[in-house]
Amino acid sequence: VIRPRLYFGKIILYSNLLKKWLGYIDKLILFPFQLQKAASWADVVHICDHGNAIYTKYLQKIPHLVTCHDLFAIRAGLGEFPEHKTGWTGKKLQQMMLKGLNQAQMVVCVSEQTKNDLLRLSSLSENKISVIPMGLNYPYAPMQTTEIKERLASLGIPANSNFILHVGANHWYKNRIGVLSIFYELILRLQQANFYLVMVGKPFTDEMHQLIKKYNMTEKVIELVAVDNENLQALYSSATALLFPSLHEGFGWPIIEAQACGCAVFTSNRPPMNIVGGEAAIYIDPKNPQAAAEKIIYYLPNLENFKTKSLINSQIFRTEKMILEYIDIYQKIL
Fold it and tell me: Which fold has domain 42-133+322-333?
């Protein structure tokens, strides 16, 4: 595995903007020499993230493929999300990325949704695009009750409480404001004292803090940052349900992580979430907090029925299956 080495990018500077531009020297000027030297002995070069598709122009005489997770940045650069502007530098980088994808020998998308976006935005023919769903990157499974209690206590989760779980970063399409709005509608209707929302991911934004304060949910919303896999497994294994109302996703990893732990999932009735979740998930409108809350409440008494379904569905996304499918692609492009 190789990645751009930091030379200029590690220079200590007070200006983040200048540091970013120096980092481009490492990535765009110096790294291609490192890549070409390393690739000279390789049978296949696998660019594991579409953000590095800019390097395909250096691999035209070497069998190679790119894994494409999503095209949100490229779509934003093209103006498909008017409310989320992309700066001049970002647009140029996205143009380079799309050009790199167009020059790829093979592109593997993590979902049919990503493939459809790629076919629409690129000049690639369909025979140059495959779909291989993501596999779990950690052996998630239901955790024993004793270990769960110890780990929840260490995370500051109140004993004997019920909680809705959300896992995700602060990107706009993760809809964390929507998560808070849905939870507010839930507590209005349920009126349960020992009922919480646990949000795992990046630190809350100012907008999130303001909404929590506005809805008087300071004592009901628990913020967890930098949670490791073992503690996340404990959360998945004990949560009432995962709430994952994303507006867009390339795949939606938390869905299968939760299901592998036997956790019920409420997620958006949009692709790829409603493909990844299969028949084991319950689907909601991510932009209608009231209707989402009502649907969650309707299913709460019967969530145990989704445990077995969740475990079965998660088996579709075994890591071993993903690896074998990639090996098949490697053999095809040699």
Answer: Rossmann fold (3.40.50)
